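Handout, tutorial session.
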Amino acid sequence: MLLVGDIHINSKYKDLILTSLRKHLLNSDEENIVFLWDYMYQFVYDKKSLNDLFNFFLELFSLWKKIYILAWNHDWINQTFVFEEVANFVKVIDSFKWFKIFLQPQIEEIEWKKILFLPYNIYLDWEDLFKEFNLDFDKVSIYDSLIKSTHKNERYSWYLNKFLEQLLEKVEVDYIFHHFYFSDEEFVWQKGRFKYKDVAIDGKRFLKSWSRIKFISGHLHQSFWRKNYFCVWSVWATSSLEENQHKFIFKFKNETVKPILLDTNFYLKLEYKNWLKINEKLLKSYFTELLKENLENLRKGDFVVEDININVDKFDIKKWTLIVESQDLSYDDLKLVVESDLFKVLNQIRLKRKPLRHQQIVRLFVESEEKLKESFKSWKELLLEYLRQKYWNDSEKYIDKLRELQIL
């Protein structure tokens, strides 16, 4: 089984995305391909790009691949899923029984694993859904306080957690493919904790009480394993916030994960040091070191993660953006510290101010205060010197008056 994360296709990056996916998916011997989430880019409906993406799905299907497509938060226009017309079509055409689009929760068996597909759909009729799964919509739940909230996302979190709570007590599944945050959990690189108002699953309860289940999601654009939670990356870096992150698709087989590195775009952030001369060899070396670190983040969960060997020279650095982090450099200085050839080759070169540490801020404040005192002291001395030179013996009465006024 192959897992493909957030695609976020748009006209600017469409060719880059599809070329990279074609390279790995068309020639794969895997029969099942799961496209997990987010086909639109930042809620922008780019019809031409979406059509090209869907034609790619059909191209894979024509090669006898079994295609699974899930709807997520970026993929709705008003109350319509971007591929909804196709979803209605494949429901009634028997030859498309292995081309599945999920707009509501559904359990499927793939490669002898029972998988709950849990799409993001705020327009669901939850009462009907509970009936469909033989669950009790009116049963008291520990999440009932959420339904009284004035925040619509907290109310959605009530439906979501109540549904999962009852379903998992009744049905055994191996994986849950979803596109939600976990409440009050903080994972590597995550800068904050999400709450139910962000539409979230109860992390403390479900990740621990159902530790036998593997939860697999995207959404964060960061790839890592934490015990029974696996977060899959996006297939390209949608912004510079995804700096130093390699992009993968993943092959699952016999409880083993094989990352497949994609040659899409890459934001490489490098801290500048005075001795550093930035050249292509340095960038490729750092790219390889970062890859080792990113793979280590995948080795902290319940699956075995295979090593991968790459030839970095086969990766196109024209797609890379170099971010030089420094507190002292200016854009003019970049021409001195970055080899001239890189300006011609790289996609972009940017300068980023390095955040000051607490101790540095304190030191700068103290230094500034000392300079201010020195400047003020010098000003007083200059004034005294001026008064004595101009008024000679009379200068003292002026000085006394200034002291009385607390100017001196």
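The second record follows below. Compare its token runs with those of the first.
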Amino acid sequence: MRRDDDFTGLPALNRTNGVKRLKRLGDNEIRLMAKNDTRKASRSRGSKVVSTTGTAGSEGNVSVTASTTRGESSATRHDRRAAWGGLDWYEFLVGRPSETTMPSVTTSWSTMDTESKPSAALADWPSLPWPRGPLSEYVIATFRSKSGSPRLMPPVNVGNAIGDDDLQLALFLCYELHYRDVASAEWEWDPAFLSFRAELERSFYEELRELTATPPARHPTLVQELDAVVSAYPSTSISDFLCRRGTIDELREYCIHLSVSKLKYSDAQAFGVARLQGAAKAAMVQIQFGDHGGGSSAHSATSLFGEMLTSLRLDPSYGAYVGHVPGVSLASANLESFFGLHRRWRGAMVGQVAAMKMTSVESMERCGKAMEHVGIHEDEAQYFQTRSRIDALNALIARNRLVGALVHAEPEVAGDVLFGARSHLLLEERQSDNVLSAWSRGNSSLVPWGATSLGGVPCTGVDDTGGRVDAH
């Protein structure tokens, strides 16, 4: 009889052609991968390095050293500035905008000028983002007040919860109370605030459930059904575009999207470990062990991702780009928190993890090639290459041990496993469509510099003919 940790004879995962084979991996090969991933925790680079420091009540001081960016010329930077009306968008993102560059925000629900900009939060966050509507404005205003203070909650009436900038930013900030010092810890379990978060979650969940309606099972086992779910979703992705013809600006922009979840990589699933039992818990802990660098913080996915941001001349600070990421990208991070923080959705969390690991390997490999194409080599940014190797193993564990053990012990959550997998793949597809659609028009996919107003946020961007659009 094959042991639970014996993967001999199981086929490897390939997203492009569906799930067709599993790689033979033994303990010796796992130890070899760990040795190959060993590297120095700190090293000097020739690219521009950005460091951000801040304290409560301040915007933080940004210091930039060196003056060259690997993979681009001064002519390229000049063309980019010309396309963006004289503003280099990633220089705007790396250096906190001054009052002269940050546009005033005036909508039907609030008026915010430079004097009323949200103050910096506690030490873990460089600053709170700008609100995008009544929901996120309520959350930010709540964070400034004392816990238990009575406040009138705005109604949560959203037609497109997945793509709604206001709802997703509000929900993201609500979840951040469980991760970092985004506000006073007293708000974390405030009953009134939790009831508001529940309304946001209800709207988010109802749309996910509607869009991932479960068809009749077509396969005899849940693992086979999961394979079919993964294979059914389109393989065209942002990573495929970047590998074929992406620019360094597009690669930077994609990493900004990823930063809202990768700078807290696997943290949401850590909440869920206590909700699992027996072999399923052991499998999840083994996945977490790999995600967190095998016990070495310097080798953890979060540390490697931060180093890659530095190689790309981006700010590796936690929460630095939340205010620039659209709702459809925040939704992916929110999905992980939603499943991880609710025992009711432990099965969906397992399905989400399995789908993520089963589709990660090829995506990470393509992004690694894209990094090389723009002149950033593996020894300078190891995140994508390292993740592709680790997730090759994690995909096996998630598919064959985590999912199987959970459903064997709790067969009633089988439907939730598929719901979690479908939800993850749906949001990945929505994010890809949003980003690639913006790029195809010559626009940024970030806010507030997109060509259109997402979720009621006034934006400035570039129209289809190359002219600037001011969406006030």
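Points raised in discussion: The beta strands are 12-13, 19-21, 49-53, 61-65, 105-106, 111-112, 460-462, 468-470.
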